[in-house]
Amino acid sequence: MATLCCRTTSFLFTILLTAASIISTSYSSAASLDGEIIWGASVDDATQSFSWNVSWGIVYLLGKPKQVLLINGQFPGPQINTITNVNLQINVFNSITEPLLFTWNGIYQRRTSWQDGVLGTNCPIMPGQNFTYLFQVKDQVGSYFYFPTTGFLKAAGGYGGLQVDNRVIIPLPYKTPDGEVTILIGDWYTANHTDLQGSLDAGRSLGLPDGILINGRGPFGSYITLDPGKTYRLRISNVGISTSLNFRIAGHSLTVVESEGAHTKQLTLANLDVHVGQSYAVLVTLNQIPGEYYMVATSRFTSTVVSGIAVLHYSNSQSKVSGPLPSGPTTEIDYSVTQARAITWNLTANAARPNPQGSFHYGMINVTETAVIEGAVTMMNGKLRYAANSVSYVNPPTPLKLADYFNLGGVFSLNYPRFPTGGSSFLGTAVLPTTFRGFLELVFQNDEDIVQSWHIDGYVAFVVAIDGGRWSSASRAEYNLVDALPRSTIQVYPHAWTAVLLELDNAGMWNLRSQLWERQYLGEQLYFKVPNPDGSIRNEAPIPSNVLLCGVAVGQHP
Ligand SMILES: *[C@@H]1O[C@H](CO)[C@@H](O)[C@H](O)[C@H]1NC(C)=O
Ligand SMILES: *[C@@H]1O[C@H](CO)[C@@H](O)[C@H](O)[C@H]1NC(C)=O
Ligand SMILES: *[C@@H]1O[C@H](CO)[C@@H](O)[C@H](O)[C@H]1NC(C)=O
Ligand SMILES: *[C@@H]1O[C@H](CO)[C@@H](O)[C@H](O)[C@H]1NC(C)=O
Ligand SMILES: *[C@@H]1O[C@H](CO)[C@@H](O)[C@H](O)[C@H]1NC(C)=O
User: Fold this and answer.
1) Most CB atoms closer than 10 Å: which of 78, 249, 288, 350?
2) How many angstroms separate the alpha carbon of residue 56 from the centre of ligand 3?
């Protein structure tokens, strides 16, 4: 959220150039055009360029070969390590046989939903084509990841970590760790993504995954060697498609320090629930007897527990891991709720900018609009679909963002219902209208038996309350208006609700979706529009000069 902070100064720019020497990939300082804004990037800040060739490959996982996505030959995809305010320029070459887009989970895409990489904002990169994303990781520090959004490619990998570091001048609220480890945990289906997509198209649910991967490897495939006595920052993301996971390391505690870009009050836990699409940073100190320890990610709230197993190896030890896996919670909901409530915002820590996080008093801002979103399972023509507020979303051939920009009618309607309708579900492409700089109260209601995970593109939102039953205006009495965690991916427990608050300061067309990919694919998503009131590029970046056109936008002039 941009308003957590203030404006860029040339002082910070100087520091950034110093910090940039630690960037390992190709680096160039952009020519100065006096602070002019190009696309969603800033010419005052450094640019880091990547070229990605996305192709098919086969990996053997959980004993079965499966066609997966490779990025420059890698599975998972390459890690992006960057620093606050750097412009990322990522040229994606589609060398697969399907349309392709990537999204940058948790990155605000400040003023530039043009770069968000979902079908409502971007035309897909067609086979043989390429597209260069250009966006600034503006005012963010933290742990994120990217993944493919088109078709059902998310079930074929194509994900990777995206780490945004603080500028050295703005210290962390804890001792700089001795090292970093990215841990991508996620469920895995041994069926390939075309078979999975075929099941969904035929109206069948995917069911339970076959296993859990850690860093793209099955049990005992990831072997992480670290030094005794040292403290590491583990950046953990749940990159899976359907399953909440519990992460833990035998004999070692996890100190939670960050969640999707917010410094948390440091909280030491034995294990941590990470819902689909969420990211955390935790500190782990290798303070145990040198040896090997299990690092596990096990499914939560499933009838059968599936486990991902990696090994933490002390570099000075020869011994081998043995014995039972460390135990953890399985189906307990209350445990998860209690843990989620205990992780709060550190008001005195600074994040991307020197002012303390708590100087943004979100609890003192008056709510100007409310929406309550309730997901549902439904059947249409004998096939499984999902909906939210009765609308089962359908992707039109023209991205909503382009239709809106070029004033092309008939692509979407601006009448998404603000509240659950109670009526039966229907197919549609409806957008929730909002007011620029309004303050939105968004309530996610879940009357199903599953743990839902909603993701808000373009924003983080303060998770002010989680509780059982149905939300009502009286529920506002229980809001945490002081130190609730701001996050972009929000779990909603069974027969419960989660309320969030967000300032609508990022103009654009933004996707709000279930991160449970079967649900997203079958209609449980929507877009909300935050209008640019005066068309100024201060509020919204101009259309990129390399924009891809499709649908009825073909032939338009950007
Ligand atoms: C991408 O990789 C494929 C397969 O290795 C190769 O045939 C193709 O030439 C590469 N394309 C680019 C743009 O590097
Ligand atoms: C997916 O698996 C099916 C067999 O279940 C196979 O027929 C099909 O060719 C595979 N598709 C890809 C893209 O690997
Ligand atoms: C495709 O890549 C070329 C460089 O190889 C680049 O100049 C061009 O802008 C890219 N296309 C798009 C649409 O970004
Ligand atoms: C919060 O941040 C402050 C300032 O950086 C730090 O000194 C303190 O240890 C943090 N508190 C907790 C509970 O993490
Ligand atoms: C919020 O609303 C109250 C009551 O209408 C008003 O007194 C107060 O000034 C408002 N606060 C802000 C920050 O606008």
Assistant:
1) 249
2) 21
Say what percent of the chain tops pLDDT 70.
93
Assess whether 306 and 436 both reside in one domain.
no
Which protein residue has the closest C-alpha to ligand 5 atom 8? 366
Tell me if 522 sits within 8 A of 386, measured CB to CB: yes
Looking at the domain assignment, is residue 130 inside a domain?
A: yes
CB of 366 sitting under 6 A from ligand 5: yes
Q: Which atom of ligand 1 is nearest to the CA of 93?
A: 13
- Test site for ligand 3: of 94, 100, 129, 131, most ligand atoms within 8 A of the Cβ: 131
pTM of the model: 0.94
- Final residue before a domain boundary, out of 342, 377, 403: 342
Q: Which of 130, 133, 547, 550 to mutate to test the pocket of ligand 3 (most atoms within 8 A of CB)?
A: 130
HEC per residue, 479-511: CCCCCCCEECEEEECCCEEEEEEEECCCCEEEE
Q: Do 62 and 128 fall into the same domain?
A: yes
Rounded to whole angstroms, the Cα distance separating 543 from 360 reads 30
The verdict on 160 and 186 lying in the same domain is no
CA dihedral 172, 106, 482, 477 (to 10 degrees): -160
pLDDT band at 11; cut points 50, 70, 90: very low
Judge if the upstream peptide bond of residue 324 is cis by omega within 30 degrees of 0.
no
184: amino acid identity, one letter: L
Query: What's the mean pLDDT when you consider all of the chain?
Result: 92
In a domain, 554, yes or no: no
Final residue in a domain of this structure, among 107, 138, 165:
165
Number of the ligand 2 atom closest to the C-alpha atom of 67: 14
Per-residue model confidence (pLDDT) at position 5: 32
Q: What is the CATH number of the domain that holds 257?
A: 2.60.40.420
Question: Is residue 19 predicted with pLDDT exceeding 50?
Answer: no
Question: What pLDDT score was predicted for residue 420?
Answer: 97
Interacting residues of 512 by C-beta distance below 8 A, sequence separation 6+: 373, 432, 454, 455, 456, 457, 525, 526, 527, 528
Structural domain boundaries, residue 10: 2-165
- Domain assignment of residue 172, yes or no: no
Q: How many domains does the chain have?
A: 3
Burial 367-405 (b: 16+ CB within 10 A, else e): eeeebbbbbbebebeeebbbbbbbbbbebbebbbbbbbb
